[in-house]
Amino acid sequence: MLKLLSVNFRRAFLRKRFIIGGGFPLFIGILIVIFAYRNGATVEHTPFLMSGFLPMLIGITAGLYISQDYTNNTIRNKIICGHSRISIYLSNFITSMLGTIIIYGLYVLITLGIGSIIAGVSSDFDLERTIKGILLTYCILLTFTSLTVMFCMITSGVSGTVISTLLYIILGMSSLVFVFIDSDTIREWFMNINPTYQIDNVQSYVYDSDLLPLEDDVHISWIPISSLVVITLSTVLGISVFNKKDIK
Amino acid sequence: MEYILQTSDLCKNYGSAKILKNVSINVPKGSIYGFVGRNGAGKTTLIRVITGLHTPSSGSYSIFGVSNTDPSVNEKRAKIGAVVETPSIYPDLDARENLRMVCRLLGKPFDNIEEILKMVELANTGKKKAKNFSLGMRQRLGIAFSLINNPELLILDEPINGLDPQGIMEVRELLTNLNQQNGITILISSHILDELSKLATHYGFIDRGIVLKEMSAEELHRSCQKSARITVDNMAALEEVLREMNLGYNVLTGTEAEIYGDFFVTPLVNELSKRDCIVQRLSQNDESLESFFINLIGGGEIA
């Protein structure tokens, strides 16, 4: 596993695409800070401005990284060398998860860390609520990452990247099923476990605003649990499919 | 005989299509095993199964005596080097960096990279990225990948496909050296039969997913050298001598006959000379590997 991680980290963090993928939110973060500074705005909510965009960026970055292993056929080397498929899957999972942690961590560091020094925060800035919001966002982003890894590992090509990139939108559009299902209980359950809606829920919680009211039936406490469940299930499913998969 | 790789009734199906049908092969230690078959015969599929890229639908195989169902088979795979179809290289890296990547995968030091690059004649490629390599260079880099771990078994799928004559010769020399000097067993699949006949010590013939025959190069040689054609001016004398020498023959014309089996030419010519029979012509009818294979599969062209 360590050997695989060593190759993965080298491939991921020293390659152009990953650096561009990871660097983009930093660039946006810097722009946000400059914008806030020039307009006299505060930056306490900036870590959550990009929440909806980050899953797509992660889908592209992690998706391209994994699918490249298939398009170059270098995944064959790992199998032929005698690495187990579980190790190969988990090494890609760990690399992608770490990538997500670094990407969002840097974004938060730029927007909130440096931004608060340059542009400042409002007087009613609630640090505890913000940290909680960041941790919940992390949970959601890691869920998206786990789903990305699963789709890319079992579809073995660009199709996995496309699905991962559009996952945020696909999950958002999945609420259309409620045209046919008229049940508040199911709807509530669905809104609480769907990562796309969880992002809205976190924003509602952090902003604590009338514009985005936190509905009584929306529970942010569900997020860590549902993330854990989705990450576990998607990983188990991904590994079991990948184990039986024929690699071309 | 010690076998490094054995398959037993191996089957591989893709949906309803049966690609491998009860394939059983035995690769002896130290051999160069030529796996011969037309395009689509199942050669690559078998190699994919053996290298762990595909899972068998039924049947089993063993590598270094360890069955594919044994969890420790992955450890044995580390003793295998393989190039399956196109070499799996990192296109954005140069040859050295590519080999370093494989060293990292194997947890090996970078000690023998230069030696291997020299062996495959890629030591002078400098910073040239692998994506800019010619097909022959990529093929050699793929072979270099498989040599990093000092393999005991090298599996090469159509390694001379698309190479120019010079490239083919280089790969052939490399493989011969690896087999003879390093004692590496090589399984090589190809449909370029004449090239294979210059390398292989053992053969497996496959067609439509079925292994038709396994044989050593000597056996194949004997099967291919079926007869000698002789032209003489005294057929009666020839028949008499052939009977005395217990050789099978067939009279074709009044002056021509075919002689079957192994025999020494000089005693035959001497005997005929004693009977005032002049040998006007003697030629060996060699059946090529290609025609042998075509006969084996019951006709049709080799792709």
Task: Explain what you see.
The complex is a heterodimer of chains A (248) and B (303). Chain A is mainly α and 248 residues long. Chain A has one domain (2-244). Helix content of chain A is 75%, strand content 0%. In chain A, helix 2 (16-39) runs parallel beside helix 5, helix 3 (54-71) runs antiparallel to helix 7 (158-173) and helix 6 packs antiparallel against helix 9 (195-207). Chain A is globular, with a radius of gyration of 19 Å. With 303 residues, chain B is α/β, with parallel strands linked by helices. Chain B has 2 domains: 3-217, Rossmann fold, CATH 3.40.50; 227-285, Alpha-Beta Plaits (2-Layer Sandwich), CATH 3.30.70. In chain B, the strands form 3 sheets. In chain B, strands 7-8-9-4-10-11 form a 6-stranded mixed beta sheet, with helices on both faces. Chains A and B meet through helix 1 and helix 4 of A and helix 2, strand 7 and helix 3 of B.
Quaternary structure: heterodimer
Helix content of chain A: over 70%
Poorly predicted parts of chain A: none
- The chain-level structural class of chain A is mainly alpha
Total number of beta strands of chain A: 0
Rg of chain B (CA only): 24 Å
Strand percentage of chain A, roughly? under 5%
Q: Main sheet of chain B?
A: 6 strands, mixed
Distance between the termini of chain B: 33 Å
Shape-level CATH architecture of the largest domain in chain B: 3-Layer(aba) Sandwich
Largest interface: A-B, 26 and 30 residues
Mean pLDDT of chain A: 82
Coarse shape of chain A: globular
